[in-house]
Amino acid sequence: MYEIAEYLEMEGVAFKPRAYNKAGLGLETFNRDVEDLYKEEGFKGLKKIPGVGESIAQKIEEYLKTGKIKYYEDFKKKIPSSVEALTAVEGVGPRKVKIIYEELGIKNLDELEKAAEEGKIRKLPGFGEKTEKNILEGIAFLKREKGRFLLGEILPTAREVFAKLEKLKEVEKLSMGGSVRRMKDTIGDLDFLAISENPEKVMDLFVSMPGVVRVWGKGATRASVHMSQGFDMDIRVIPRKSYGSALQYFTGSREHNIHLRKIAIEKGLKLNEYGVFKGQEMVAGEDEEEVYKVLGMNWMAPELRENTGEIEAAIREAQGKPDGLPKLIDYKDIKGDLHYHSRWQESDGTPIEEAALAAMDFGYEYIGISEHTKALKIEHGLDEKQLLHHISEIEKINSRLSQGSGKQSKFRILSGCEANIMQDGSIDIDDKVLAGLDYVIAGVHS
After folding, report:
1. Which residues contact 142 (CB under 8 A, 6 or more apart)?
2. What DSSP state is assigned to residue 171?
3. Least packed by Cβ within 10 Å: which of 128, 155, 276, 327?
């Protein structure tokens, strides 16, 4: 959906890119497996996905039936550039990709880098010397991170694979490992660990997952595959008695694990993926918390395991000393969102009340609706009259919600705007109107 949106942006199509981006987000965050939804509820079920209407539901159905979307394939024939790779470069959006392809015939990163080094990019309309320099810096960054993927790109696949494996009755326990469990900014590959009395079934399902393009290996308790997105996935079925130590080991980081092994040696122990041993006797391994406890420290969240002081903090905490492990901020700690554009006044926008109900589902206590203002015509910014109507509509909805029950009665919608700072430093909306809002965001959009 996101790539279709990018192709549509290249074509200069209005509104449709936003619809496809919205559908892409809906698919990513939907709380059910889309294939299962389609099997159980058919075409109508697909329209339950946020942002998915009749037209996009048809394309999802086509993909589920054939593995392809003709609409998308036609775009790829028309503009054969590697859109995903090129737009990964900072400052290169879909429209720039189109210009680069049409003017220079560039289809990939190597060709883009060569053209930039030869000074050809700066000569293109809307580019310039600074853009060319930024492109070269962006390509250099991608090369440094080669073989790694942004967490946001890989996490939806990780969750989808996890959900499919978890449904298998033969899987008793399942965890992700590696850098995705540590929620690193970039991910090299995906690791899964499972407990199962019938690992053959687990291996069969794993190697037949949607998106698998090559099976590197498939054994009795381990399989490794290559995905269409370009990364590898591994799964290991672990004996129950070693599951905790294996999870700790395969979560990492490498530096964290090296430090733990040194501590184990100092205590006369041996630590590896099979367990913690004192001589030939296994003293811990089934549970990850137990592994850390035997080493004299409290369990710590995977996000902290980078050998940057977390081990020392975990030891202090286990000893009841101050300066223990920090409390991590979780999604449940987020109480609201103050930067939301509903564009409710447009045909493809989201009604404010619908946005509020979705926010409640996230566990939010408030949401701020901050539409763009009149100077930003490309975003259909609101003028003073429309903003006053915006305030009035929000007041009415708040009044209705307050008469509801439970969390609905306590939920609050805040009226705001994202005002434009003009070249002379003034704001594009009259101060008297701004004073009637709950809050104002101001930004330069030129």
Report:
1. 88, 89, 109
2. E
3. 327
Question: What's this model's pTM, rounded to 2 decimal places?
Answer: 0.66
Claim to verify: residue 132 and residue 154 sit in the same structural domain: no
Domain boundary among 203, 238, 273: 238
Residue 306 sits in a domain of what CATH number?
3.30.210.10
pLDDT digits (tens), the chain, 446 positions = 888 888 887 777 767 888 888 888 888 767 677 888 898 999 999 998 888 888 999 999 999 988 889 988 888 777 765 666 787 787 787 778 888 888 888 888 888 899 999 999 999 887 888 889 989 988 887 777 677 888 988 998 999 999 999 999 999 999 999 999 999 998 999 999 999 999 999 999 999 998 899 999 999 999 999 998 889 999 999 999 999 999 999 999 999 999 999 999 999 999 999 999 999 999 999 999 999 999 999 999 999 999 999 999 999 999 999 999 999 998 889 999 998 888 666 655 578 888 888 889 888 999 999 999 998 876 778 999 999 999 999 999 999 999 988 888 999 999 999 999 998 999 999 999 999 999 999 998 76
Indicate if 352 and 433 belong to the same structural domain: yes
Find, among 101, 13, 18, 102, the residue nearest to 53 by Cα: 18
Amino acid identity of residue 125, one-letter, is: P
Q: Are the C-beta atoms of 305 and 182 separated by less than 8 Å?
A: yes
3-state secondary structure of 388: helix
